[in-house]
Amino acid sequence: MKLMFVVASRPNFMKIAPLIKEAKKRKINFSILYTEQHKSESMTGIFSRELNIPKPDYSLGLKAKVGKLSKNRKLMAFFSSIPHLISILRKDKPDYVIVVGDVISSAYVALIAKKIGLNVAHVESGLRSFNNEMPEEKARIIIDNNSELLFTTEESANEHLKKEGVNEKKIFFVGNIMIDSLSLKLKEAEKLDYYKKFKLKKKDYAILTFHRHENLNGAYKINKFILFIKEISKKVEIVYPLHPAAKIQFKKFDKIEELNKIKNIKIIEPVGYLAMLNLMLNSKFVMTDSGGIQEETTFLKIPCLTLRTETERPVTVKIGTNTVVGLNKIYCLNKIREIEVGLYKKSSIPRFWDGKTAERILEIIKNEKR
Asked: Which among 292, 293, 325 is positioned nearest to 310, based on CA atoms?
């Protein structure tokens, strides 16, 4: 059996690492295709080293081709890469192209792989935010529509796929692959004390991540975010690893200086996987618009306040530590008060978030290949 793992962005590294580890253990032949949608030392280089991911066998080089192009020209750059992608897929001849997550370039690989007759498996299938502004929502649907095997993280995802007409025999509830990486690296992250680098006190600060394009794609949205953070920073010290995409938007709307002037907030460069885990582990709570962090905080039992109006990961709200607060200052401050006085909701870890998801996935693929 031959597998191809597709990596597109930083979160994908956490998702393929356990699959690669399990494939090696089972002596399964595999290759890695890197689309390079994210490519930099801070965004992907350190992640691949910390998670022991081998160098990719193939690359599409999309980062260099796309750069800062307009939306339409980015689309043209994707189209221009199709012949190269087809030649890679035909040369490698994998039994399954395994796509993780919800990145646009991953969707593009899944679509082309299916068109030329290859089997696609989607890890993290069926998640739906029902927010069509999100590129990730479009990517999820494209990947699911072109997959033969659909591996889900929570039961709501199973229901979404069934409602969309997916054959139940293709759907497999396997748990959360992100938690495999987290379980494997948790002790290593705990030893770091990385938070001390920024003169932070344990459980006396909040972590902030906020970078989604739909949240920062206009002056009004950026102004609203800055006003929100100014208010929250009066109550707690905030550490904000600034994503390159967010930095571009703040500069575009001439707001980077105003952001930097907010008192009680530390703007830092993006950090590696272990450093980010250490910062989260020692924080009082996390504010985010990221999907993966909602899951990680639920597993770590750290309060998470999601700065969006919806989540595609409802299990993190239903039984986890997550609360969707949007940019509602009053609601967010009320939740912070609950956290501070010990009245924030109790949580539990969702089913199959046990560090064994990669094992289940590869066992299913092995059985399906027979």
From this structure: 325
Structural domain containing residue 263: 185-341
pLDDT per position as a tens digit, 104-149: 889 999 999 999 999 999 999 999 999 988 999 999 999 999 999 9
Quick: pLDDT tens for 226-274.
999 999 999 999 999 999 889 999 999 999 999 999 999 999 999 999 9
Residue 209 has phi, psi (to 5 degrees) of: -130, 130
pTM comes to: 0.94
* 211 carries an active-site annotation: yes
Pair 46, 96 in one domain: yes
In a domain, 306, yes or no: yes
Candidate list 84, 211, 213, 243, residue with the active-site label? 211
Give the C-alpha separation, 264 to 266, whole Å: 7
Note whether 208 and 239 are within 8 A (CB). yes
